[in-house]
């Protein structure tokens, strides 16, 4: 089973090109995770127990405001990842809901954080890749804001 997870990690966009020994470490922390459509993957305020690499399906990253309906601000597809709060040892900042049936590789967040602390190389790899995700989502948010609120001067 670990070999199957290791192969899936190596093929996932987030982990593509990562050193073999790092993939071996990650596979030892991973399990398959299944979430039915419309079920919660994460809830804001809870401690993140897993870092998810989406293999199939779509997940919505959602914010809630008092007196308003929940708003999906981003959609994660296969090849994407869910959550980076674990890396900063803080609670989930958003709700995450499965929009379709979602299959992911779930890495144990606590053990992953420990593994990053034990290996400078793994910490650097994960940091750079997470920053790429953050930058991508910030750019997408900027485009959404321009589309909704932008106007020509």
Provide an overview of this structure.
The protein is α+β, with helices and mostly antiparallel strands and 153 residues long. Helix content is 38%, strand content 26%. It has four helices and eight strands. It has helices at 2-11, 20-27, 109-118, 120-149; strands spanning 30-35, 40-42, 50-56, 59-63, 71-76, 81-82, 95-98, 102-108. The strands form two sheets. A four-stranded antiparallel sheet has the order 1-8-3-6. A four-stranded antiparallel sheet has the order 2-7-4-5, covered by helices on one side. Strand 4 and strand 5 (71-76) form a beta hairpin. Helix 1 (2-11) packs across helix 2 (20-27) and helix 3 packs across helix 4 (120-149). The longest helix is centred in the last third of the chain and has 30 residues, at 120-149. It is globular and about 50 Å long.
What is this entry, summarized?
With 153 residues, the protein is α+β, with helices and mostly antiparallel strands.
State the main characteristics.
single chain; 153 residues; alpha+beta; 4-stranded antiparallel beta sheet; 38% helix
Average of pLDDT: 90
What is the number of helical segments per DSSP (H or I, 4+ residues)? 4
Task: Kindly state the number of beta strands.
Answer: 8
Fraction of helical residues:
25-40%
Kindly name the structural category: alpha+beta
Summarize the biggest pleated sheet.
4 strands, antiparallel
Q: How is the largest sheet built, in terms of strand order?
A: 1-8-3-6
Order of helices and strands: HHEEEEEEEEHH
Radius of gyration over alpha carbons?
16 Å
Give the distance, in angstroms, between the N- and C-terminal Cα atoms: 58 Å
Q: Regions with pLDDT < 50 over 5+ consecutive residues?
A: none
């Amino acid at each position: 089973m670990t070999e199957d997870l290791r192969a899936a990690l190596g093929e996932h966009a987030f982990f593509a090109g990562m050193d073999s020994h790092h993939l071996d470490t990650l596979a030892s922390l991973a399990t398959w995770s299944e979430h039915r459509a419309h079920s919660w993957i994460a809830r804001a305020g809870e401690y993140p127990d897993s870092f998810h690499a989406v293999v199939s399906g779509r997940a919505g990253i959602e914010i809630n405001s008092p007196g308003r309906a929940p708003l999906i601000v981003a959609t994660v597809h296969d090849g994407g990842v869910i959550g980076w709060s674990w890396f900063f040892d803080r609670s989930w900042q958003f709700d995450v809901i499965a929009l379709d049936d979602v299959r992911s590789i779930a890495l144990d967040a606590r053990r992953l954080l420990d593994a990053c602390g034990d290996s400078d190389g793994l910490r650097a790899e994960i940091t750079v890749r997470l920053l790429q995700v953050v930058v991508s989502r910030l750019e997408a948010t900027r485009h959404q804001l321009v589309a909704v609120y932008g106007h020509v001067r």
